[in-house]
Design brief:
3-stranded antiparallel beta sheet, Rossmann fold, 32% helix, alpha/beta
């Protein structure tokens, strides 16, 4: 009898508190069916219009999924702060390739990989804008977020849209209100201007061996390698945002490597509070935290 009662209690707990998600197809490209998971805040009303975190997972453009445990946990977590969590799949153009996305991957292929990822991300954002009432989203408050490869894609989508997108008119209704990047980089930080700079959160380790902390070759490839491709990492992006007097939250780990691509659940409350103050309340905030690797 006690076993039955315990089981019923467990099932009631799971049913009452488990976060549900809804999955949608946002694009079909060749053999790829691209989907996204939408997590809504609990007890939302029909008239609600929430900010949204549009998240792109990492994996070197060859691995990872939108419903990795960490991605699911993140999407569930932000709903507690009255933010809609959305995690997307995208074309993994380096999956199964001999060169992967390292120093043997030619520069042109790296550029095309970024381009495909930017296009997919913009299509996901456009899908949300077109369905904003259905998803209870305030389309003027889209936070672009991603980790590692996903962070590179979203940074390029936000700051270098005109470089990677041919049909800019198609995405004229897509505007981003904030950026949340974990160990990411942009192809050229000079594309960041007063017109496109927005409140930005960056986490990065100073000794990241894959995505440069400052300005350096991707994967630190030698100049004679096919994959020699310069990127502007978080520290370079922050210098640009500082010049433009744009809000930022920069979390630096001295000696930290690419593990900073992991979702920082230990600091998410501060991140979400930063976005609330800058996006919702209109404050200008510039914060830099420096920690030493343990």
């Amino acid at each position: 009898m006690r076993t039955i009662v315990a089981l019923l209690t467990f099932l009631f707990f799971c049913t009452s508190y488990a976060q549900t998600k809804t999955t949608y197809t946002y694009a079909i490209k060749g053999t790829d069916t691209l989907m996204l998971d939408v997590y809504l805040p609990k007890k939302s009303k029909t008239t609600d219009a929430f900010p949204v975190l549009l998240w792109m997972h990492g994996g070197g453009f060859g691995g990872g999924t939108r419903d990795n445990p960490s991605e699911q946990k993140l999407a569930e977590y932000v709903t507690k702060h009255k933010v809609v969590g959305v995690s997307i799949s995208y074309r993994l153009t380096r999956k199964g390739t001999l060169t992967g996305f390292g120093c043997d991957c030619p520069k042109e292929e790296k550029n095309n990989t970024f381009k495909a990822a930017v296009e997919d991300y913009m299509d996901a954002a456009l899908f949300l804008v077109k369905n904003k009432e259905k998803f209870k989203i305030d389309s003027s408050k889209i936070i672009a977020g991603g980790s590692s490869a996903g962070a590179e894609a979203i940074l390029n989508a936000v700051f270098m849209r005109e470089h990677f997108i041919q049909d800019l008119e198609k995405y004229k209704t897509v505007q981003f209100a904030g950026v949340f990047s974990l160990a990411g980089a942009v192809v050229n930080a000079n594309y960041i201007t007063k017109d496109n700079s927005i409140p930005t959160v960056l986490f990065h380790g100073t000794d990241d061996n894959l995505v440069p902390f400052g300005t350096a070759p991707h994967h630190y490839c030698d100049t004679n390698k096919p994959g020699y491709f310069m990127l502007d990492g978080s520290n370079t992006i922050i210098r640009k945002l500082n010049e433009l007097e744009t809000s930022y939250y920069f979390y630096v780990v001295k000696g930290g490597m690419h593990e900073m691509a992991g979702i920082p659940f230990y600091d998410l409350d501060n991140v979400l509070n930063f976005f609330k103050k800058t996006i919702l309340d209109g404050e200008t905030i510039q914060i830099k935290k420096i920690k030493s690797k343990i």
